[in-house]
Specification:
Order of helices and strands: HEEEEEEHHH
Distance between the termini: 31 Å
Largest sheet: 6 strands, antiparallel
Number of helices: 4
Strand content: 25-35%
C-alpha cells in the first residue's frame, strides 16, 4: 500500500471511529449516510476530495507536505483551484497530521441516501476542478463560495443516478 491510500484509509478510519465512539446515537446523525472519502485526487503534493460522514460533508486536503504545519489551528488558508478560490480551515490532529477542510454541508440530515450525497460531492468536485466554472462566474471574483456552487448545481438540474 502507498502513502496516498494510507492517508485516505487513515482519514476514513478516523472518522468511522469518531462516529462509532461519539456520534452514533446523536440526533444530528443521518443513519442513511456512511463515512466515505469521495473523488480523492492529487492537488500538488496533497490529496484533495470530499469527506462525507453521517453528520457533515467537507472538502479536504490531506497532508502531503509540511506547507501548513506552521499555521495556527483554526486559521484559514485560501487555496486556488481551477474552478475558483476556496477558503479552507487548518486543523492539526495527532492521527491525521495537518489537514485543511472547507464545509460543504454542516449537516447531511436532508440527504435521503448515500447515493444522493455522493452525487452532490462528485458534482461539487467537478465544478471545483473545472476551469470553465470560474469563467461562468463572470464577476471577476475568483473566490468560489458555496452559494455559487449550489446555484451552478441547481442550474444544471443535476440528479443522482
Amino acid at each position: 500500500m502507498n502513502d496516498v491510500s494510507d492517508a485516505i484509509e487513515t482519514l476514513v478510519a478516523h472518522y468511522q471511529r469518531v462516529y462509532e465512539e461519539t456520534f452514533r446515537d446523536l440526533p444530528i446523525v443521518n443513519p442513511a449516510i456512511d463515512v466515505e472519502a469521495i473523488g480523492m485526487r492529487r492537488l500538488d503534493e496533497h490529496e484533495f476530495g470530499v469527506l462525507l460522514t453521517p453528520w457533515f460533508m467537507n472538502l479536504v486536503l490531506l497532508p502531503g507536505s509540511d506547507r501548513w504545519d506552521g499555521r495556527p489551528q483554526g486559521s484559514t488558508c485560501a487555496i486556488e483551484l481551477p474552478g475558483g478560490e476556496v477558503e479552507f480551515i487548518v486543523s492539526h490532529d495527532g492521527h491525521l497530521g495537518t489537514t485543511l477542510s472547507a464545509v460543504l454541508f454542516r449537516s447531511v440530515s436532508d440527504f435521503p441516501d448515500q447515493a444522493m450525497a455522493r452525487a452532490v460531492a462528485v458534482e461539487t468536485l467537478r465544478l471545483l476542478c473545472n476551469r470553465e466554472a470560474r469563467e461562468e462566474n463572470g464577476s471577476g471574483d475568483t473566490r468560489l463560495n458555496r452559494r455559487d456552487l449550489f446555484r451552478r448545481f441547481a442550474a444544471g438540474g443535476y440528479r443522482a443516478q
